[in-house]
Amino acid sequence: MIRLSAITPSGPVQLGNYLGAIRRWAAEGTEEDVYFISDLHAMTTSHNPSRLRSLTREQLAVLIAAGVDPRSVAVQSDLVRELGALTWVLECTCTYGEAARMIQFKEKSAGRSSVRLSLLTYPVLMAADILLQGAHEVPVGDDQRQHVELARVLARRFNGTYGEVFVMPRSVVAPTAARVRDLADPSRKMAKSAKDAAGTVFVLDPPDLVRRKIRRAVTDDLGVVRYAPEEQPGVANLLEILAACTGKDPEGLAGSVQDYAELKEAAADAVIEELRPVREVTQGLLDDPAELDRARAHGAERSRERCTHRLDAALRMSGLG
Ligand code: ATP
Ligand code: MG
């Protein structure tokens, strides 16, 4: 059973990525699974080439440092030729209406004067990611479910028109591990690409910066430490972060802390300890480019081996070659 997940190098890896996704990939992932660093997807909006390259390397290093099986990690663009070829065939299987209907496209393009064509077509590239690897399951949040549905529509249509090539993927609800909120605005989730990084803890932030950011976290003026996500989202977020780092439950933790200052110090201590080994190993990998390159080449080779026959079949059966 192949499970496929991805992380986009749209910004430095943040605490939510780690607690909500990467840590679980390390604990539960198998060698069969695929973890893509989707640098091609990061190009659908304005990007800077050297920053994209360094964020991609950083993500690769963080995933490996966090203990994700290096054999299952691959940089998407290392398969750009294969993916580009299949994307074309799938674009010739997809209608304009199907792509234009994607809610994420509507949201991300709304009100913009200049929208890259790739923002419209990227769900087809995502379908190529999934179908080329023969993924059975794609764990996603609500925002990506529609894209996996499109991959299913395209797989079914291709198989029905030209012959059975693709495994039918299905979206599965990504287990609700920690959902980390922005420290400066707890009504939003923490995100790599947030415009203002004040409320975002990055995995590679030095400990004193992590502590400063957590000390400045927005709370409320009720002055009681309770786990009440609706009324006290800032406090609840700190309790959830503390819970995710200590393996305890947020309600229980609420009773063990006196005030907001103590909660913030406890959360800062826990986050710093949780991130320390990941940060140190990541730094070591970034300082040893040869080892990181080897891991990257190996991951690319593995995912290429897995997909070549399927790509060849798709090209041949649709009338190419
Ligand atoms: P972007 O701002 O570019 O959307 P992001 O931080 O939301 O960046 P993604 O690349 O969209 O990151 O997601 C990578 C993984 O991290 C996904 O599995 C996603 O569910 C998880 N994730 C992202 N943000 C959080 C968060 N705040 N809490 C828990 N999990 C998160
Ligand atoms: Mg996101």
From TrEMBL:
It is an enzyme of class 6 (ligase). Keywords: Aminoacyl-tRNA synthetase, ATP-binding, Ligase, Nucleotide-binding, Protein biosynthesis. GO terms for cellular component: cytosol. GO terms for molecular function: ATP binding; tryptophan-tRNA ligase activity. Its EC number is 6.1.1.2. The keyword Magnesium does not apply. One of its GO terms (biological process) is tryptophanyl-tRNA aminoacylation. It holds the Pfam family tRNA-synt_1b. The keyword ATP-binding applies. Belongs to the class-I aminoacyl-tRNA synthetase family. This is Tryptophan--tRNA ligase.
